[in-house]
Design goal:
heterodimer, A: 146 residues, alpha/beta, Beta Polymerase, domain 2, 6-stranded mixed sheet, two-stranded parallel sheet, 8 strands, B: 196 residues, Rossmann fold, 42% helix, 8% strand
């Protein structure tokens, strides 16, 4: 069984290297600043002792006031996991940095979030529709759809 | 080069989107009968006696189903095809993967708009005469997914349906009943159609 790392410990470790990167420490997750997302992810993947080499999934959630993207990371080496979140307050043109360059597995899932929630992942090399067809209007997974 | 343009990803995506939007736009229209123009000529010039009976018998006892199983009703169809319920009793045991060799499309499952052009294409490729059984609630009306943005509200929005079989999913006995109803329909059909 994969052990979930305590977000508090990780936050302390991150605070040394990236001050102000963590906005909020949840009970089971960390809320990150979108600007420092890529640097933190790169650090989590490469730093010894953490080695988050596997991205389980990327998901998007609509909370009316903001759109949230959730990253579930796992280290296959140490068998531990961590949940990270990023928020996007602009509903008209939501944009976040893409983690495609760090984990290739983010490819299809970021495309799915782009298709169904309308979040643009900047830096994704082929951000096209994946589930719906060309000409479909609106973003079905948003709460205000229909 | 032009060839590259046609087969580029963007062009394929765009063509697919255009096809789906056309299907959606035409989904409320009446599906025209492809051999309507034949009727008048046939009525005036052809006289048949027991040919109809023989043709009807031959057609209904060798219905070959075409694979169109997008969702879970397929398992009821598989059960029906397997030894316990055994549709080979009706001459249907050969389930064709090629639409050109099949007569009957049993539409077992929910159809999404993304999949609709493919189903329409399979139906168009089947040789006449051909029949369709809409199997299950989703095939009749979209079922519980009817109000969804991505689901076709019934196969009759894209292809003509002969027999509607309700159930979620229908039992194999119900499918056999639907097949028997289709047999009756086929045996009543004349090559000279009477009374529109």
């Amino acid at each position: 069984m994969t052990t979930a790392l305590s977000p508090g410990k990780i936050a302390k470790q991150l605070a040394k290297k990236f001050p102000e990167a963590v906005i909020e420490e949840g009970a089971d997750s960390l809320l990150l600043k979108p600007e420092s997302l890529l640097a933190v992810m790169e650090y989590l993947k490469t730093s010894p002792g953490l080695d988050f080499d596997y991205l389980n999934h990327v998901t998007g959630v609509d909370y009316y006031d903001y759109l949230e993207v959730v990253y579930q990371l796992t280290s296959l080496k140490h068998n531990h996991g961590l949940v990270l979140k990023v928020r996007c307050y602009d509903r008209e043109k939501p944009a976040l940095p893409s983690v495609y360059g760090i984990w290739r597995g983010a490819d299809f899932q970021e495309r799915e979030i782009f298709d169904l929630l309308g979040i643009v992942f900047e830096g994704h090399p082929k951000l096209r529709r994946i589930v719906l067809w060309e000409g479909f209007e609106g973003y079905p997974l948003r709460k205000d759809f229909l | 080069m032009e060839i590259e343009e046609v087969y580029s990803r963007e062009a394929i995506d765009e063509r697919e989107g255009r096809q789906i939007n056309e299907l959606i736009a035409r989904s409320q229209d009446i599906i025209p009968d492809p051999d309507q123009w034949l009727d008048e000529e046939l009525k005036r010039n052809v006289l048949v006696t027991s040919v109809d009976a023989v043709l009807g018998w031959a057609r209904r006892t060798s219905l070959w189903p075409v694979v169109c199983f997008p969702a879970c009703c397929a398992f009821e169809f598989i059960t029906t095809a397997a030894s316990r319920f055994d549709i080979s009793r009706f001459g249907m045991e050969i389930i064709r993967a090629s639409p050109r060799q099949g007569d009957l499309m049993i539409t077992a499952g929910t159809l999404t708009w993304k999949m609709a052009p493919q189903v329409k294409r399979i139906y168009d490729q089947m040789a006449e005469p051909k029949w369709v059984i809409a199997m299950g609630a989703c095939a009749i009306s979209g079922g519980i997914f009817r109000s969804s943005y991505s689901v076709v509200p019934g196969y009759n929005h894209i292809i003509p349906v002969d027999v509607y079989l309700p159930g979620c999913p229908p039992r194999p006995e119900a499918l056999i009943y639907a097949i028997r109803m289709l047999h009756k329909k086929i045996s009543q059909r004349s090559i000279i159609r009477e009374g529109k």
